[in-house]
Amino acid sequence: MDIVERENVNVPNAVIVGGLTLSESDQNLEAWLVRYGSIRRTLLIDDPTSEFHRQAIIEFAHSSAMATLKLLLPLSIVSTSDADVIFTVRALSSVYTLVVKENSTEGYLAQLKAIANATGKSFEEVLQEELLKMRSVGSTTEQLPSGHVADPQTQGLSTASSFNDSGSPVTSQRMGESRDGTFSPNISPLLGAGSQKTQNLSKENENTVPNAGGINSSSTPGISQPVLNMDIINPPGVQRVVVEHVVRTSDVTAQHTSLRLRSFSGKIPRPPNEPDFETWRASVKFLLDDPSVSDLSRTRRILDSLLPPAADVIKHVSPQSTPSVYLELLESVYGSVEDGEELLAKFMTMLQNQGEKPSSYLHRLQVMLSATVRRGGIAEKERDRSLLKQFCRGCWDQDLIVNLQLERRTNNPPTFAELVVSVRTEEDRRASKEDRMRSHFGMTKQGLAPSKARAAAHQLSAHSREVASGAAPETDSMRMQISEIHAQLASMQPLTHQKCQPACSKVMDVTSLKKELTELRAQVQAMASAVSPEVQN
Fold first, then answer.
1. Domain assignments of the chain as residue spans, ordered by start
2. pLDDT tens digits, residue range 220-254?
3. Which of 214-228, 461-475, 514-528 has the lowest mean pLDDT?
4. Which fold has domain 2-233?
5. Would you put residue 270 in left (φ > 0), alpha (ψ -120 to 50) or beta?
6. Dist. CA 18–CA 56, nearest whole Å
7. Of 21, 120, 318, 390, which alpha carbon lies 20 to 30 A from 95's?
């Protein structure tokens, strides 16, 4: 309904019409409304998000038109051109006032929440204080000075207007009656059934207006003594929000009280969906620390969460026993039997495993430390310091300890929450840095691959030129060595035919010479294959 403020609509002189077809049928409605007075303007509400979308606001030029028409509202009008088209006409003040009240209520509650946040009180306390103030104001009666005497007729009209705008039961009844019967524009509202209905509504207003206005009939004619109505001081919107908040709070409380503990049986091996005793005991500890739950409810929840054979352990316990008795008995059966000193020794010997993250190691230390403190191995005030010392002692990641400066914080150790957050943050920072390093070096290697290939090609061509330049002298020397070896072999062959049993030393010489010859041939072939492309170029 922003159009009312934007177009500066005179709300008391306007009606809102629904059921428009945006065709010639709408002209019949406008012609019917002109009977009561001249129309100043017609505004169409075009807002798909509004509940008044495709409805029109018709503003009369004079207040006399609404004074006559308001006695008939709300009403339904059947179009003369199309019997299926039914227009609904309501006073704009009856609709717009509810919207303004709802917005005002939301703003009022938002201010109360801001006051609650600023003062540190709960929203319920601030709201209760405001309601008490409203009730105290409503119980007082203010008297107007004699100079402000209102005309009885004007006072009655204003009282009836405020009463109709506040959405009273009389207005609701009148709306229901108008919906049962429809009015046709060709029947004058001042004749026949319309006249009878108008007279009835006038009598009804005369009977209900004095009570609704809260005016004392025994007061003197010169001085009026208005009594503030609770609907004005405590608007229905505020009452509705308070009731909804109370109902919502009760629902949350009921839901909270209906929560159950996870089942525990104590079977070995432990079922997959069942917690171990330490986890179950921790949830029971939270239940025992909750002040809103009675001992009877705590005992009932503990009994409901137990399954055989754990339920068989506490069968002999009296139902009037406190929950701590049940928990102590179950802990003696399923809890750890190690004393505080043994748990302290285990805690001091816990070290980081291979491949284990520092944060995971810190979590293992915290679990063991909690058991040690519960058994009396470590004082509660030394919990944080002992955890920090053992973490610095058993963690193998010295860089992490140095970066976080943990060894310097033993005098003022952080809590477990602060310590685990700092450790996880450092782990995440390292992992991100390693990912960036891998991606960076991977791209660098791909970029350097073509340049390395070009460098290798240049080196190969340079080496080929060097080989070509120095190949001739080396080839000549190798040829001379080969001819000498051939000469030696030729001189040794006659001797081998003459002697049937050659000496072992000569055989070894021949073998070595053959090896040298094979190597020289391989070198010559390699050099010749390298030199031939350069010679061709």
1. 2-233, 259-334, 340-414, 445-536
2. 444 444 554 555 556 666 777 777 767 666 555 55
3. 214-228
4. Alpha-Beta Plaits (3.30.70)
5. beta
6. 7
7. 21
